[in-house]
C-alpha cells in the first residue's frame, strides 16, 4: 500500500515536470510576444496622435501670431488714433500725439494677451513711445530692434527670429518681434514694433498640452529654440514647418526607448511566436508519448476509478476556470470604465474646442464637414434656423467676491443646465459653452416644425423666462444678448458678434435684461464731439467753482441716454471726463491739487472701472464730484484772495459788454494793483484774465446766436467787441468754427 502511494506520487511528479515545464517556458514567452504585438499597435496609434497634436499646436500658434500681425497691420492702415503719433502737424498736441496713441496701444495689448509691449517709433524726431514712457532712440533701452529694422531694405517682414531685448522693467528677456512700417508701403514716418516674450509662447504651448507624455521642441527659422519641453528629448516622431512663420515644431514621446524597442521587435514577433508555438506543440507531443506507455496499464486496471477521479478533477477545475473568468471580467470592466471616463473627458474638451473654432469663425467651414464633426462629437446637426444668445452675469466682480470658486462653478453649471431644460421643453436643441468667465454662449438649433413662429421671437421668449427664473431662484442677475436668426452655419460668427454687440447696449437700456440685435436703433446717436463739449464745459465750470458744472453733468448723462451708446463708448467718454477734469484741476493751488490727486481721483477711477448701468454710474460720480466741490468751496471761502476773485468774476459777468474792460479798469474799480489781479486770476481760476473774459463773452454770444436773429455785427457790439474780425477770431478759437457756421449747424440740428 505504501509502495503504491509512493509510485503514484512519482508518476505525478513526472507528469507535472513534463507539462508544467512546457507551461512555465512557453506561456510566458507567448504572453511577452503578445504584449509586443499590442505595443506595436499602441506605437502606431501614438505616432498618428502625435502628428495630429503637433499640427494642432503649430496651427494654434500660427492663428495667434497671425491675429496679432493682421490686427497691427489693419490698425496701421486704417486707425487715425495711431496716425496721430506719426503726424508731424500734431507733434506738439500731447493729447493726440501722446495720450490717445498710448491708450490705443494699451487696449491692443489688453485684447491680445500674448503681446508684452508695443513700441511706436517716429522717424522725424527719433522719438520712441511705449504704453508707459516716451524716450529718444539713443537713450531707449531696447533700441537694437528698431536700429536693425531701419537698416532692412525690404518692408514688413514676418516675425523676426528670437532676440535678446529688455522689458519695461529693464530686465533682459527673449523676444519674438514683429515690425510694421508707417505707412506700410514706404515707412517714411516711422515704424511699430510688437514684442511677444518667448515665455508667453511657452505658457501658451503649456496650455495646449493635456498630458506630459509628449515632448515638444519649437525653433525659429534659423533653428534658435523657442520652446523645448522638460526631460529627455525622447523619440522624435513628427516634424512640421509653418508656412506662415517658418517655425519648425518637432514632437515625440518622453519614453522613446520603449517605442524603439517595440518598433525593432514588431517586424519579428509573428515569426518568433510561430517558432515557439511549434516548439511547445512538439514538446507536448513528445512528453505525452513518453508518459503514455508507463501509465497505460495503470489506466486500464483502474479505469473506473480514474474516470470518477477525472470527473471530480474536471468539476474542480471548472470551478477554478469560472473564478478566473469572473476575475478577468471584473478587470476588463474596470478597464472599460476607465477608458469610458477618459473618452468622455476628451469629448468634452473636443466639443468646447470645436465650439470656439466655430463661433470665432477660424477658417472656412463647409456644411458637410460641419455635419461630420457634429456627428463625431455626438451632437445633433439638423436645423432649419440657428440663433445665438450670450448670457452675461451682471456685476461679475460682486459675484466672485460673494461665492467661493467651487460655488461659482456650481452656479454656472446650474445656469447652463436650466438653459438646456428650458430649450428642451420647447423642442429646441441647445449647445451652451462658457466662452469667458462671465459669459455663457448658447447656439439654438430651431427645427422646421417650429418655424411658423419667428426664431427671434422664440428665443426672446425663452430668454425672458430664463431671466425671471434666475431672478426668483438665484442671488445674482443676468443680461442676455440675442442675434438675428440665420440659416447658414458660415454666418454663426456674425450672429455671435450680433449677440455680443446687443449686450454692449445694456448700460444705455437701463433695466432691460434681454436685448435683441434687431432692437438696437441705427440712427439718433449724438456725435462724440457734441458730448466732448459738455465734458469740457463741465470740467471748466468745476475747476472755477461755478455751480453750472452740475447742469453740464446732468445734461451730459441725459445726452448719453438719448444717444444709446455701447459700454465701450461710454467707458471712453468717462475716460475723457477724467482726463479733462485732471487737466483742468492741475491748475489749482497746491493744497487743492493735493486733495484731488490723493483721494477724489482714485475714487473716480474706481467708479468708472466698476459700473454696470448709467444710473449707477451717474449716482456714484455725482456723489464724488459733489463731495470734492464742497471741499474746494470751503477752502476757497476761507481764502481772502478767492473772495476778491469771486467779486471780480461777478463784475465781469455783469459788465462783459463793456469794451473798456481791462486789468486797468478792474484795478481802478477794486483798488488792487493790475499785476496782483492777473496773478490771482491765474492761481485761483487757472487761466489768465484775457482768456476768462473772452470765454464769458463767447458764451453769451452763443446764446444770442441761438436765440436771436441779430447780425454778427450787432452781436459783436453786444458782447463787448469793437470789431467783428476780432470777435470772429476769438469765437473760432474757443468754439472751433465761425459764428455763422455755428448758427447754421445749431439751426439744422434743431430742425432735424
Describe it for me?
With 752 residues, the protein is α+β, with helices and mostly antiparallel strands. Among the domains are: 136 residues, PAS domain (Beta-Lactamase); 159 residues, 2-Layer Sandwich (Alpha-Beta Plaits); 111 residues; 103 residues, Arc Repressor Mutant, subunit A, CATH 1.10.10.60. The chain has 26 helices and 15 strands. Helix 21 packs across helix 22. The longest helix is centred in the N-terminal third of the chain and has 77 residues. One of its GO terms (molecular function) is sequence-specific DNA binding. It holds the Pfam family HTH_18. InterPro entries: Homeodomain-like_sf (IPR009057), HTH_AraC (IPR018060), HTH_AraC-typ_CS (IPR018062), Tscrpt_reg_AraC-type_HTH (IPR020449).
Low-pLDDT segments: 1-8, 312-322
Give the overall form: elongated
State the name of the first-level CATH class of the domain at 361-519: Alpha Beta
CATH architecture of the domain at 361-519: 2-Layer Sandwich
Report the radius of gyration as a whole number of Å: 40 Å
Q: What composes the largest sheet?
A: 6 strands, antiparallel
Number of helices: 26
What is the CA–CA distance across the termini? 128 Å
Mean pLDDT: 77
- Count every beta strand, where a strand is a DSSP E run of 2 or more residues: 15
Q: By CATH's scheme, which homologous superfamily of the domain at 361-519 applies?
A: Reverse transcriptase/Diguanylate cyclase domain
Helix content bin: 55-70%
- Order of adjacent strands in the largest pleated sheet: 3-2-1-6-5-4
Strand content: 5-15%
GO molecular function: DNA-binding transcription factor activity; sequence-specific DNA binding
Pfam families: HTH_18 (PF12833)
Keywords: DNA-binding, Transcription, Transcription regulation
Amino acid at each position: 500500500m505504501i509502495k503504491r502511494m509512493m509510485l503514484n506520487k512519482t508518476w505525478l511528479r513526472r507528469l507535472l515536470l513534463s507539462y508544467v515545464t512546457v507551461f512555465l517556458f512557453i506561456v510566458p514567452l507567448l504572453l511577452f510576444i503578445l504584449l509586443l504585438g499590442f505595443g506595436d499597435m499602441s506605437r502606431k496609434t501614438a505616432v498618428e496622435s502625435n502628428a495630429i497634436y503637433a499640427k494642432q499646436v503649430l496651427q494654434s500658434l500660427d492663428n495667434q501670431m497671425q491675429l496679432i500681425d493682421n490686427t497691427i497691420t489693419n490698425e496701421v492702415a486704417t486707425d487715425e488714433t495711431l496716425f496721430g503719433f506719426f503726424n508731424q502737424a500734431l507733434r506738439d498736441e500731447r493729447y493726440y500725439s501722446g495720450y490717445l496713441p498710448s491708450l490705443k496701444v494699451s487696449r491692443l495689448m489688453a485684447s491680445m494677451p500674448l503681446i508684452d509691449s508695443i513700441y511706436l517709433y517716429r522717424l522725424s524726431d527719433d522719438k520712441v513711445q511705449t504704453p508707459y514712457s516716451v524716450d529718444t532712440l539713443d537713450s531707449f533701452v531696447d533700441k537694437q530692434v528698431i536700429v536693425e529694422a531701419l537698416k532692412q531694405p525690404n518692408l514688413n517682414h514676418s516675425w523676426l527670429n528670437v532676440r535678446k531685448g529688455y522689458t519695461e522693467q529693464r530686465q533682459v528677456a527673449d523676444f519674438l518681434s514683429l515690425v510694421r512700417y508707417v505707412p506700410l508701403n514706404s515707412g517714411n514716418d516711422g515704424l511699430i514694433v510688437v514684442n511677444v516674450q518667448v515665455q508667453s509662447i511657452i505658457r501658451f504651448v503649456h496650455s495646449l498640452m493635456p498630458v506630459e507624455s509628449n515632448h515638444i521642441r519649437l525653433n525659429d527659422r534659423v533653428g534658435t529654440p523657442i520652446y523645448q519641453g522638460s526631460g529627455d528629448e525622447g523619440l522624435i516622431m513628427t516634424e512640421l514647418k509653418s508656412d506662415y512663420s517658418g517655425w519648425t515644431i518637432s514632437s515625440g514621446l518622453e519614453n522613446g526607448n520603449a517605442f524603439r524597442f517595440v518598433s525593432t521587435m514588431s517586424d519579428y514577433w509573428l515569426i518568433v511566436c510561430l517558432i515557439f508555438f511549434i516548439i511547445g506543440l512538439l514538446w507536448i507531443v513528445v512528453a505525452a508519448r513518453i508518459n503514455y506507455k508507463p501509465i497505460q496499464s495503470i489506466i486500464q486496471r483502474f479505469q473506473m476509478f480514474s474516470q470518477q477521479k477525472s470527473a471530480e478533477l474536471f468539476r474542480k477545475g471548472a470551478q477554478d476556470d469560472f473564478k478566473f473568468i469572473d476575475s478577468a471580467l471584473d478587470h476588463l470592466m474596470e478597464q472599460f470604465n476607465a477608458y469610458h471616463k477618459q473618452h468622455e473627458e476628451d469629448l468634452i474638451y473636443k466639443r468646447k474646442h470645436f465650439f470656439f473654432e466655430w463661433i470665432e469663425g477660424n477658417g472656412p467651414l463647409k456644411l458637410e464637414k460641419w455635419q461630420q464633426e457634429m456627428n463625431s462629437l455626438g451632437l445633433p446637426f439638423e436645423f432649419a434656423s440657428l440663433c445665438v444668445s450670450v448670457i452675461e452675469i451682471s456685476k461679475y466682480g460682486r459675484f466672485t467676491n460673494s461665492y467661493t470658486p467651487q460655488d461659482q462653478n456650481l452656479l454656472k453649471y446650474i445656469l447652463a443646465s436650466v438653459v438646456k431644460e428650458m430649450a428642451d421643453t420647447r423642442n429646441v436643441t441647445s449647445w451652451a459653452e462658457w466662452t469667458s468667465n462671465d459669459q455663457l454662449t448658447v447656439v439654438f438649433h430651431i427645427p422646421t416644425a417650429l418655424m411658423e413662429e419667428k426664431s427671434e421671437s422664440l428665443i426672446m421668449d425663452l430668454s425672458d423666462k430664463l431671466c425671471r427664473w434666475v431672478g426668483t431662484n438665484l442671488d445674482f442677475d443676468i443680461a442676455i444678448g440675442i442675434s438675428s436668426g440665420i440659416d447658414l452655419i458660415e454666418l454663426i460668427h456674425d450672429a455671435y458678434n450680433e449677440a455680443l454687440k446687443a449686450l454692449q447696449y445694456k448700460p444705455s437700456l437701463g433695466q432691460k435684461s434681454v436685448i435683441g440685435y434687431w432692437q438696437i436703433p441705427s440712427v439718433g446717436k449724438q456725435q462724440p464731439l457734441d458730448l466732448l463739449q459738455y465734458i469740457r464745459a463741465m470740467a471748466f465750470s468745476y475747476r472755477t467753482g461755478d455751480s453750472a458744472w452740475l447742469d453740464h453733468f446732468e445734461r451730459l448723462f441725459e445726452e448719453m441716454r438719448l444717444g444709446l451708446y455701447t459700454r465701450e463708448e461710454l467707458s471712453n467718454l468717462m475716460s475723457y471726463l477724467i482726463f479733462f477734469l485732471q487737466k483742468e484741476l492741475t491748475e489749482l493751488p497746491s493744497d487743492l491739487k493735493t486733495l484731488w490727486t490723493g483721494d477724489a481721483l482714485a475714487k473716480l477711477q474706481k467708479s468708472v472701472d466698476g459700473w454696470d448701468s448709467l444710473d449707477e454710474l451717474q449716482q456714484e460720480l455725482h456723489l464724488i464730484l459733489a463731495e470734492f466741490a464742497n471741499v474746494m468751496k470751503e477752502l476757497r471761502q476761507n481764502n481772502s484772495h478767492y473772495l476778491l476773485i469771486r467779486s471780480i468774476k461777478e463784475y465781469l459777468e455783469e459788465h462783459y459788454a463793456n469794451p473798456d474792460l481791462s486789468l486797468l479798469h478792474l484795478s481802478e474799480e477794486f483798488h488792487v494793483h493790475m499785476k496782483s489781479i492777473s496773478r490771482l486770476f491765474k492761481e485761483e481760476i487757472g487761466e489768465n484774465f484775457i482768456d476768462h473774459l473772452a470765454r464769458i463773452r463767447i458764451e453769451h454770444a452763443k446764446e444770442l446766436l441761438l436765440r436771436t436773429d441779430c447780425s454778427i455785427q450787432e452781436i459783436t457790439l453786444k458782447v463787448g467787441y469793437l470789431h467783428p474780425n476780432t470777435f470772429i477770431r476769438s469765437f473760432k478759437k474757443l468754439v472751433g468754427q465761425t459764428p455763422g457756421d455755428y448758427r447754421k449747424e445749431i439751426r439744422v440740428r434743431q430742425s432735424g
